[in-house]
Design goal:
Blueprint (H helix, E strand, L loop, with lengths): L1 H17 L1 E4 L22 E8 L7 H19 L4 E3 L5 E5 L3 H66 L6 H61 L4 E7 L3 E4 L5 H15 L28 H11 L2
Parallel strand pairs: 1-5, 2-3, 2-4, 4-6
Antiparallel strand pairs: 5-6
The chain binds zinc ion (ZN).
Zinc ion binds next to strand 1 and helix 5.
Length: 311
């Protein structure tokens, strides 16, 4: 059950990640050349500037510059050309526009964190419950043995008392022995009462833990349902676009790594490279199978670069 839930959560998270699209508006293709001279393209650096970055993205201008520079590098190293240059006066602008897409990303992240937290709490309660249950079983076994012994001793004592009453035994020594046995039985009984109270206390504690556990499970299920209703259905939206008239606009990213990948992709469009068919390619129309931690150009990306820059 636990594994299933984890798998389900993983599925939800993956479903959310994989529906992000990077789109190049269809109309842009004929205008791409606006930035690229037809003769000897890519020999003059394409100048660009950061126009604006909504503070809700929580990325500093310095960090954004770093990511942009890393995005430049991938194309520049491959071509051996200085393809891009940062220039505050440049016509090509980069903008980070905050809308419901990034808002949803934050909400999804919060829900994921709360699900993770609930899972941790549940695991801790399960551990407590299992320890209590083990303790209870152990104490119950020894309690049952002691009850058996008590009942046996009590039976023997009653028989002895019966013998005494029938005048079979009359000595004072015998009487004292019975008195001693009686006290012993009383002690045993009190001990049993104490053990019984201890068992009940453990059971009560275990029930409290189970109640807490059920509450956590309810919260977890409710959070999963929220996640499912908000992010479970297929949501296709753009992470970013390149539009020759608007420039590069970024709408959504989860981490620096997917921001970098989106920027590399949009820089590719700015160079005049179109989408390619390999899902591992930077210039594939969708993010998903590319190496986020170590983005690299595929043969298809390289071919696109070669063609666009007439290398
Ligand atoms: Zn694209």
């Amino acid at each position: 059950m636990k594994f299933f839930r984890k798998l389900f959560l993983l599925f939800l998270v993956s479903a959310f990640i994989f529906v992000f699209w990077i789109v190049m508006p269809k109309k842009s293709q004929p205008q791409v050349r606006k930035y690229i001279p037809a003769a000897r393209p890519c020999r003059t650096p394409l100048k660009y500037a950061i126009d604006s970055a909504d503070p809700r993205f929580n990325i500093s201008p310095e960090k954004l510059r770093d990511v942009l520079e890393a995005a430049e590098n991938l194309w520049e190293i491959k071509s051996g050309l200085n393809l891009f240059e940062y220039d505050p006066e440049a016509e090509l602008k980069v903008r980070l526009v905050f809308d419901e897409r990034q808002q949803q990303t934050y909400e999804a992240e919060q829900l994921e964190a709360s699900l993770k937290n609930l899972d941790t709490q549940k695991a801790s309660l399960e551990k407590q419950q299992s320890a209590l249950s083990g303790e209870y079983d152990k104490k119950l076994t020894s309690f049952k043995k002691e009850v058996e012994k008590y009942e046996k001793d009590l039976k023997e004592y009653n028989e002895e008392v019966s013998d005494w009453n029938n005048q079979k035994r009359t000595s004072e020594e015998e009487y004292n022995k019975l008195k001693k046995e009686e006290q012993n039985l009383k002690d045993q009984f009190n001990k049993l009462k104490k053990a019984e109270a201890e068992l009940n206390a453990i059971a009560k504690k275990a029930n409290t833990v189970i109640t807490q556990e059920n509450k956590i499970i309810n919260s977890y299920n409710s959070a999963v349902n929220t996640y499912k209703s908000k992010f479970g259905s297929s949501q296709e939206f753009e992470k970013g676009i390149f539009d020759p008239s608007a420039g590069i606009i970024i709408y959504q990213f989860k981490e620096t790594s997917d921001l970098a990948l989106t920027l590399i992709h949009e820089f590719g469009h700015a160079l005049g490279i179109e989408h390619v068919e390999n899902p591992k390619s930077i210039m594939y129309y969708m993010i998903g199978e590319q190496n986020l931690d170590n983005p690299a150009l595929t043969a298809e990306d390289a071919a696109g670069l070669k063609s666009a820059c007439q290398l």
